[in-house]
Protein 1
Amino acid sequence: MKIKSQKDFVSGLALIAVGVAFAIGATNYNFGTSIRPGPGYFPFGLGIILAILGAVVLFEAFTTKRKDGDPIGRIPWRPLICIVGAIAFFGYFLPKLGFMISFPAMIVITSAGGSEFRWKDAILNAVVLTALSYAIFIYGLQLTIPVWPA
């Protein structure tokens, strides 16, 4: 079989790999039942769905004709580093700095990955998203997330 779309081929493989990894990782947790699902129930289901979606995309890579083979372009390093770095920053600093400092910082770091980055827009976005996230997760769902530095 000939690969007709390089992007679909690589994307399909990546989705399958991540989906299978989540499904395997979820087997370390209790599944529970359909009525009372355990902590492994949801990630296992999502992993399977993601792997199936990856298989569909991978199938498309072999069947759908794309212009010029739909080659993979250059890797956008700046957005990739900013987004992954922002998530790692948030995960590491949430217990230390609290939600009200680490969440808006994550939003600003993520915004820096865009080609049209402006400080004013990033800070406004961070303030609005922090307020909405606080209202939903801390006030509405009453999650026990550290709000301020300890």
Protein 2
Amino acid sequence: METWGPGNERDEIAVWRQLSRLMEQVNATAGRRLARGHGVSVNELLLLLSLTEQRDGTLRMSDLIKALGASQPAVSRMVARLEDAEWVIRRSLQDDRRGVDVQVTEAGRRLADAAERSLRKALTEALDAAALNDSTASLVARLRYEPAMPLD
């Protein structure tokens, strides 16, 4: 098992490798659960959650792109798919024809709520499994027992 600590020249590489392994394992578990149970990807759920966190359930497309850290074409494809499923609606802004608002529908809110519960369960299970794996155990312990900094 690779570890990090003072004087270890491979500190950053070891952490990066552990993090990469951990993210692959967690994303695979979460992705399968969301796709099978709810018909959405992890990124689509993150988009829906970004909308549900807003008082009116609406964000400009440009703000969604920033919130998700994804490219404009990728977010546009996600919005189009979610719109086809009637989980969001998209509309041009009256005062700025170049701007587009995306709003979560009531069906999208219900989906986001149920999928978020599934995601939380999948993340717990994936992190529990990773905690037993020599290549990721120390990183999981560190992540679970040191408080996370808020993203905002």
